[in-house]
Amino acid sequence: MMQLSPLFVRQMRTLLGEEYPSFAAALAEAPPVSVRLNPFKHIEGKQEPFAGAAVVPWCAEGRYLPERPDFSLDPLFHAGAYYVQEASSMFLSEVVRRSVDLSKPLRALDLCAAPGGKATLLQAALPPDSLVVANEVVRSRLGALRENLEKWGALHFALTSASGEDWEGVGAWFDLVVVDAPCSGEGLFRKNNEAVREWSPAHVEACALRQRAILTSAIKVLRPGGVLVYSTCTFNRVENEENAEWLAKTFDLEPIVLHLPDDWGIVASGEGGYRFFPHRLRGEGFFLSAFRLKEGTRAVPPPRPPSNFRRLQPLGRQQLEALRPWIRLSKGWTFFSTPQGDALALPTALLPELRLLDHALTHKWLGVRLGQFKGRDFVPEHSLALSWALSPEVPAVDFNREEALLYLKKEHFWLPATQRQRGWVIGRFEGLPIGWLKVLPDRWNNYLPAERRLRRSLS
User: Is-cis flag, bond preceding 115, omega within 30?
Assistant: First the structure.
């Protein structure tokens, strides 16, 4: 049974009053399970995953599941058909819908992006041709972030690893900045025993100070009129309302007030603050506040976009012709090669924005990695297999569930469909690609990256 600190219990009794027993009882229950469907991975004529599941009220793509399945043994999870995300944090979808101008492409920054839940939600929520920059300063978390962005399959991402001072070269440039800040994690106590053990008033204060430093960096890259969203997965006022009040007093920010249905169970707290308690709704502990930077606020303007990239070179005509059969669309995209020989696809409409990021930041990864040219041969990347950029004309074999899981384990099995194929073939499950295989006259080779291999037993 969870052993809560007496100081935490006292904090929550003060915060909740007579509601505390209901809150404590909720902490002893199993947390609800929820996923968010990927609108980029819906196959015409195919039933969506988890059909019939209850919809998360504040997110049209959110679904509550009656129990937690073994997601690692679902090929659709590996194909990116959905993202496993806590329901409360999906509230960002409703905030974006109500607070930003969705009639035009936007520039959005997820400043603390790993493992990718908020960034993938933004890609689905914002208008086409919007740019979502997913930033993670902790390098050890970049691998999971990259994997989730690639599985999502959307094309208008940039991945960066930049700290506060690194952003000074960008200026007040973003229409939307999301800071889902590292916090004391009180809202995840029933999922995370380590957060329970680490909790102390000193840890809460340290988190609050760190959050203010991150928020100060966020304000510097927000354009006047832009929206800042600040959220935590904790309950205490120090990291939540007090930081929100500090923001409003320190910067030219106006709280964005939303009027929400009573039956959602979300508690309005302060000006523009919203609290999620597990005894009031189907979700974990969460806090969110949203602000608009006042028009006319003095800000450092973004520099003029450079005319070229630092190290990317346009692909030659021969290579472009060789790429044509692999790519769904050639119009609207510009193709480049890296010094390492990787072929990239970048949205043409976003080239000025991507060039600015390229010159302003040291650690960044732009565009969709398509593959490498090796002599006359093109070797496709796993990221292309999962991307919406992949041409539907690429030869494919359809796996049943057992075959898909064996493929994901990188175990060899006889595949009758390969008798009719040769060369590079995409492996699919229920119409969605999960990876490459190469068919030779006497065998086929599995090109799933070793680090993506399923290591679970199938029994």
Answer: yes
For residue 413, give the nearest of 399, 394, 432 by alpha carbon. 399
Report whether 106 contacts 179 (CB < 8 A). Answer: no
Q: Assign 1 a pLDDT band (cuts: 50, 70, 90).
A: low
The C-alpha atoms of residue 75 and residue 90 are separated, in whole angstroms, by 23
The verdict on whether 233 is a catalytic residue reads yes
Instruction: Report how far Cα 248 is from the mean position of its chain's Cα atoms.
Output: 27
Using alpha carbons, select from 210, 201, 162 the residue that is nearest to residue 357: 162
Q: Tally Cβ neighbours within 10 Å of residue 237.
A: 20
Question: pLDDT digits over 12-65, tens only?
Answer: 999 999 999 999 999 999 999 999 999 999 877 778 899 999 999 999 999 999
Residue 319 to residues 64, 216, 278, 382, 392: CA-CA distances in angstroms? 46, 45, 55, 19, 20
Catalytic residue among 112, 183, 207, 233: 233
> What pLDDT digit, counting tens, does each position of 252-290 carry?
999 999 999 999 999 999 777 999 999 999 999 999 999
H or E stretch at 75: helix 75-79
Distance CA 194, CA 196 (A): 5
Q: Which runs of consecutive H residues, i.e. helices, occur in 184-238?
A: 193-198, 201-220
3-state secondary structure of 265: coil
In this structure, how many other beta carbons lie within 10 angstroms of the beta carbon of residue 324?
A: 9
